[in-house]
Amino acid sequence: MLDQLGHFAVRTLRARYRDQRAELRALRHHIRSGDVVCDIGANKGSYLYWLARWCGDGRLVVFEPQPSLAGRLSELCATLRLRNVVVEPKAVYSTDGELELFVPNGHQPGASLLCPTGDFSRVRVPTVKLDNYFDEQIRISALKIDVEGAEFGVLKGAERILRQHRPLIVVECEDRHQSPDSDYRVFSYLRSLGYRGSFINGNQVLPIESFDVSVHQRQDGEWFWKQAGYCNNFIFEPAAQSITVTQGK
């Protein structure tokens, strides 16, 4: 457990102060103590500690469908006494039920409900629709979504929440998944619900109107999604709210 805590601490600090600075800055600005927030596709929990801390007296609901990772997150939360965190070993999608999760061998973060290419394992996992998981009176403040191509399914299953509660959305979205749930389908859907988007380029938050998949998600070379200038994280807020375009701290 000490090794797990050490790795978790390093991952948490890297996210806040290096790798996801802009994403976490947007969430920090939005979340208030008492809020209900969702971490959808938590994986190893890079966002978990910060979201739990900022929720305060509220609740963080963490969804992670890989059983081993969900179990590890539950153990970490118990050890750290993060009593406002609920870990659900489930995938979020547009329906309640059960689906196959495809886990690339040797690369757990790439697990997806969409069948990938290459070598992978399959595991049956329960799925939940957010609109059914939460009662109508529960206000959801923010959604962090990292589901490797299944973003549209997650958002369709939360349409009531999006219309009723207008949560902030921080979502990873990539053309490389080659699925019907491509970047522009997600963008168009959220725009139809009255959301305005921006994308993260390094530590800058820029208007989504300047996003160009051929430029910002170029698929050149091996591990192209780890190259400088590759942009896959987006922020969506209700159009009535302003999006600050800044480098920030």
What does this structure look like?
With 249 residues, the protein is of the alpha/beta class. The protein has one domain: Rossmann fold (3-Layer(aba) Sandwich), CATH 3.40.50. It has 9 helices and 11 strands. An 8-stranded mixed beta sheet has the order 3-2-1-7-8-11-9-10, with helices on both faces. Helix 4 links the parallel strand 2 (59-63) and strand 3 (85-88). The radius of gyration is 17 Å and the shape is globular.
Summarize the structure.
The protein contains nine helices and eleven strands. By secondary structure, the protein is α/β, with parallel strands linked by helices.
Keywords:
single chain, eight-stranded mixed beta sheet, globular, alpha/beta, 249 residues, Rossmann fold, 32% helix, three-stranded mixed beta sheet, disordered C terminus
Quaternary structure state of the chains depicted: single chain
CATH class: Alpha Beta
Give a count of the beta strands, DSSP E runs of length 2 or more: 11
Helix content range of the residues, please? 25-40%
How many domain units? 1
Mean pLDDT: 90
Give the N-to-C terminal Cα separation.
33 Å
What is the makeup of the main sheet? 8 strands, mixed
Beta-strand percentage? 15-25%
Instruction: Indicate the structural class.
Output: alpha/beta
What is the CATH architecture descriptor?
3-Layer(aba) Sandwich
Major sheet: order of its strands? 3-2-1-7-8-11-9-10
